[in-house]
């Protein structure tokens, strides 16, 4: 009886709220269809370090002879929605921000720096607490995060990088959109990921047999001299984990300011990447437009493998700074060479023949136990170790999603929301 009374009085209070607080606002519509009120204002914000790539048309495919007669990049006209793209590849120091954030979050959790989230019993990290990494008591409390005594390199006790794990969920929009799944519980379309995010620095040794590259393994990600160089040793799943963290990091800040959220950060599709690399030149063989890799003065225009192996001729022995050389007409650096870049697209030899001509996108999220061929992801741009053919805008290549290397990096994009700012009519 008491429970019934409680529900009854709750309904009375709710009706008073609707008739008391809501009556005036609904009367203000005067019976007209005016749309929901109190909607937030929207002004596009260009994220720091990103370039706006306008909506446009792309002729995907090669603009030179198909040397291998592979027919994996047949010509096709497609339309691409505008987006913001990182002007450079993600650098070591930018990726290090991600690593340190995850490391700190694990340490805060171990130290018990947690508070209840507003209005719930869920505990979240109290970021107002500080971690004094130089305090012996702190390091003793965080013992599980450090390498064991027998695993010291150069006599220095360092962090156990296998413990730096990023946990997140992603939503499978394509499966959820199927007609038969329309009214199903959305929980079944979430996928859980636990990703070790520290770059695989051993790629510098593993990638090149009978080649001395140990100094790069020891220093490339950790030494400040390489802070502005593109991060490598990051596989496809690690790149996705970075974008998930970047989205949440940016969204938390905008939410605190009471501003509407932007679309997520993500890897570009293969077509978005090719469109951006051409810099508005529809039939450009290279990002700078011309059919040659040198300018009129004989200077090489990208970081790749000139001639038959003269690696330093272009100014870089391995990778170079992420903002080296001239950008293309969109303002994007190193869309040819330096490091090849992950895209979100699955790699199929004949995909350009059947993808849609409106924002082409072909994906397949392969599980760990599936066939290796299903784990292929498209790479674009070529790298510092590739010959000129691979740095052309239209050249397609691939790598397995769980493979990292010393010549693959990535950059992020986020879809532009609203009317194209260059559309004045």
Structure description:
- With 425 residues, this protein is of the alpha+beta class.
- The chain has a domain at 41-91 and 268-419: Alpha-Beta Complex (paralog of FGE (formylglycine-generating enzyme)).
- The protein has 10 helices and 13 strands.
- The protein has helices at residues 2-20, 22-27, 92-111, 136-141, 173-176, 203-206, 214-219, 236-256, 270-277, 351-354, and strands spanning 50-53, 56-60, 76-80, 83-86, 114-116, 123-125, 165-171, 190-196, 340-346, 376-380, 397-400, 408-409, 413-415.
- The strands form 5 sheets. Strands 11-10-9-12 form a 4-stranded mixed β-sheet. A 3-stranded antiparallel β-sheet has the order 1-4-13, with no helix packed on it.
- Strand 5 and strand 6 (123-125) form a beta hairpin.
- The N and C termini lie far apart (66 Å).
- The model is unreliable at 1-22 (pLDDT under 50).
Quick gist of this model?
The chain has 425 residues and is an alpha+beta fold.
Report the CATH architecture of the domain at 41-91 and 268-419: Alpha-Beta Complex
- In helices, the fraction of residues equals 10-25%
Number of strands: 13
User: Could you say what the CATH topology of the domain at 41-91 and 268-419 is called?
Assistant: paralog of FGE (formylglycine-generating enzyme)
CATH class of the domain at 41-91 and 268-419: Alpha Beta
What value does the average pLDDT take?
88
Instruction: Decide which structural class fits the backbone.
Output: alpha+beta
- CA radius of gyration: 26 Å
CATH H level, superfamily name of the domain at 41-91 and 268-419? paralog of FGE (formylglycine-generating enzyme)
For the biggest β-sheet, the strand order reads 11-10-9-12
Distance between the termini: 66 Å
**Element order: H for helix, E for strand:** HHEEEEHEEHEHEHHHHEHEEEE
Query: Which word captures the global form?
Result: globular
Measured by DSSP, the beta-strand proportion falls in 5-15%
Major beta sheet, specifics? 4 strands, mixed
DSSP summary: helix tally: 10
Low-confidence stretches: 1-22
């Amino acid at each position: 009886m008491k429970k019934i009374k409680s529900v009854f009085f709750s309904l009375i209070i709710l009706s008073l709220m609707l008739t008391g607080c809501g009556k005036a606002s609904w009367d203000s519509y005067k019976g007209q269809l005016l749309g929901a009120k109190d909607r937030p204002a929207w002004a596009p914000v260009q994220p720091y370090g990103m370039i706006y790539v306008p909506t446009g048309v792309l002729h995907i495919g090669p603009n030179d002879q198909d040397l291998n007669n592979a027919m994996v990049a047949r010509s096709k006209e497609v339309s691409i929605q505008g987006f913001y793209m990182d002007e450079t590849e993600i650098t070591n120091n930018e990726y290090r921000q991600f690593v340190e954030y995850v490391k700190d979050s694990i340490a805060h959790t171990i130290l018990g720096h947690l508070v209840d989230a507003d209005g719930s019993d869920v505990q979240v990290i109290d970021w107002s607490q500080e971690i004094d990494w130089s305090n012996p008591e702190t390091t003793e409390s965080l013992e599980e995060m450090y390498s064991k005594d027998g695993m010291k390199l150069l006599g220095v006790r360092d962090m156990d990088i296998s413990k730096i794990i990023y946990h997140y969920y992603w939503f499978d929009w394509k499966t959820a959109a199927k007609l038969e799944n329309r009214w199903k519980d959305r929980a079944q379309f979430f996928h859980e990921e636990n990703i070790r995010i520290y770059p695989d620095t051993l790629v510098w040794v593993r990638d090149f047999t009978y080649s001395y590259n140990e100094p790069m393994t020891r220093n490339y990600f950790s030494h400040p001299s390489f802070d502005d160089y593109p991060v490598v040793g990051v596989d496809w799943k690690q790149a996705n984990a970075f974008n998930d963290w970047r989205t949440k990091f940016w969204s938390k800040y905008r939410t605190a300011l009471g501003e509407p959220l932007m679309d997520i950060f993500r890897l570009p599709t293969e077509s978005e990447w090719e469109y951006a690399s051409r810099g508005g030149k529809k039939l450009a063989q290279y990002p700078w437009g011309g059919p040659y890799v040198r300018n009129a003065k004989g200077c090489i225009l990208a970081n790749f493998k000139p001639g038959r192996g003269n690696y330093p001729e272009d100014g870089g022995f391995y990778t170079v700074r992420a903002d080296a050389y001239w950008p293309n007409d969109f303002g994007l650096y190193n869309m040819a060479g330096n490091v090849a870049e992950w895209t979100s697209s699955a790699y199929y030899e004949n995909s350009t023949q059947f993808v849609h001509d409106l924002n082409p996108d072909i994906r397949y999220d392969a599980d760990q136990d599936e066939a290796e061929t299903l784990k292929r992801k498209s790479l674009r741009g070529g790298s510092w170790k590739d010959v000129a053919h691979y740095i052309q805008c239209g050249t397609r290549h691939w790598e397995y999603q769980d493979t990292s290397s010393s010549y693959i990096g990535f950059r992020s994009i986020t879809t532009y929301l609203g009317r194209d700012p260059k559309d004045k009519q």
